[in-house]
Design a protein that fits this description.
By secondary structure, the chain is α/β, with parallel strands linked by helices. It contains 8 helices and 13 strands. The protein has helices at 10-22, 33-39, 59-69, 83-91, 104-118, 163-173, 182-193, 199-213; strands spanning 2-6, 26-30, 47-51, 53-54, 57-58, 74-78, 96-99, 131-134, 137-140, 145-150, 155-159, 224-226, 230-232.
Length: 235
């Protein structure tokens, strides 16, 4: 996987390049709009990480230039989470954004999520494109089926999930390593169901899902609670 990294701050850029390469990515670091535009090669990169504020312009212009050439996933780095900045970036075709300062672990998790959504990332927990394994749970996305294995017997049992329970599970799986706030989960549930899902209903769905997939729902190992923030499945 090759990453196009645009960051004018030397310290941040070098640190990100080191962290990306430590994770197994190949990264090329550019420091200005001009350098980025002059160095871009179509078909060369799997992902772009673009700083918004640059000494000779901004990352929006670079994103627009790249998206006109090919559809490569883009993550923006921004010093502000102001709604206008976020909306502008998404309208430019960005796939995600992250605000400075940020933890490298969060950025790596977001990179994997964006690559997974774009079809470029093959998860190490999957033996094929359609099989995902987490703890003692196996998800066959081609058949929309979920199985839980019993280590004592060595057998798997099919877990019967409702459509919304399955969609909720996939939302967590597709965002592994990222804390999902209740508001974000509610937005996603609304998008996939076309029905109104309120906060109390979400609580019920999470409880039902845990009852079906967790060995001990009172001490969940798959869908974990991050107190004061939301829920997550660890990567």
């Amino acid at each position: 996987m090759k990453v196009f990294l645009l960051e004018d701050d030397d310290a941040i850029g070098m640190g990100l390049k080191y962290s990306l390469e430590k994770e197994g990515y190949e990264a090329e670091h550019f420091k200005s709009k001009a350098e980025a535009l002059n160095s871009w090669k179509s078909g060369e990169y799997d992902l772009c990480i673009l700083d918004i504020n640059l000494p000779d312009g901004n990352g929006y212009d670079v994103c627009k230039f790249i998206k006109e050439k090919e559809d490569v996933p883009v993550i923006f780095l921004t010093a502000s989470d102001a709604e206008v900045n976020v909306v502008m970036g998404l309208e430019m075709g960005a796939d995600d954004y992250i605000c400075k300062p940020f933890r490298v672990g969060e950025l790596i998790a977001r990179i994997k999520t964006v690559l997974r959504r774009s079809g470029k990332f093959k998860d190490s927990s999957a033996s094929s494109d359609n099989i995902i394994r987490i703890e003692n749970m196996t998800i066959n996305t081609a058949e929309a089926k979920v199985y839980i294995s019993d280590k004592a017997s060595g057998k798997e049992k099919n877990v019967e999930l409702t459509a919304l329970e399955y969609r909720l599970l996939l939302d967590f799986v597709n965002n592994r390593g990222i804390v999902m706030s209740r508001n974000k989960l509610l937005e996603d549930m609304w998008d996939v169901s076309g029905e109104f899902v309120n906060d109390n209903t979400l609580t019920v769905y999470i409880k039902r899902l845990r009852d079906k997939i967790e060995k001990d729902p009172a001490d969940p190992m798959i869908i974990k609670t991050v107190r004061g923030m939301g829920y997550m499945i660890e990567k």
